[in-house]
Request: fold
Amino acid sequence: MQQAAQATAFVPGHITGFFSAHPDPETARAGSRGAGLALADGVEVTVTAGSGFRLNGEAVDVDPVETVLARLGVDAAIEAETPLPLGAGFGVSGALALGTALAANAVFDCEQTENELIELAHCAEVAAGTGLGDVVAQARGGLPIRREPGTPPYGVLDAIPAITPIEYVAFGELSTETVLSGDTTQLSTAGAAALDDLLAEPTIEQFMRSSREFATEAGLLTTDVREAIERVEDAGGVAAMAMLGRTVFALDNGLSNAGYEPSVCQIDPAGGRVVDTGSTNAEKRTF
Reply:
């Protein structure tokens, strides 16, 4: 197979509504159970031969990306773009890792299957402590439910068959590494209960209710996030907190009705994919 001079992958942003943490010495088995939303606002990663990594025009270092390239055994120049705020619960590091894996595989003809690339990116995220379930959810797209932690064949994914506009407002960062490296017992107990409730009633409305209850019971709500959720509820909507970030998301126009000026996007049903390998007929996104 002739390798491409460059390739671009798109990976949706991912909001986790609730989760329970499941560490394991084998990173492919480690991960989380829970549910979330894959967003049409995502990350576009372009890979060429060379060196250097730039995100939105700025030179950055992202450990999972470096791990992906090292395990593929390639040297690459990476240009990534996203409209999503960093560190605010949108799975940007997971999207960068998966997008790099998908695009580098096309450029350097690494001959990896989709599941192998997902596992590579997921394991890099787990090892770095920057995420437990974003990569597998971003690869699936839609409204993924992580029934069992890890990547195939260990992880088990399901989904809610629905699509709807999503609004979100980000108030700032919340360190995923700090939360995941601490005691997650209370968080995981709340996440397991939320998943049981969702599986008993697998609707997007129940997903929102479960997510709202989880944030409260896990003790993760910040003052600004709590206020925004309450304002949405007072306006007749329902909102929840993105895990892990100081971000509030709502269905339809919930945040707009509450007086905010949110970002608006759709649920992305397709999941991470290569969108351009130099062909003029390939799909191309503009953020």
User: Anything to note?
Assistant: The first helix runs from residue 63 to 72. The longest strand covers residues 31-49. Residues 29 and 150 are 4 Å apart (CA to CA). The radius of gyration is 18 Å.
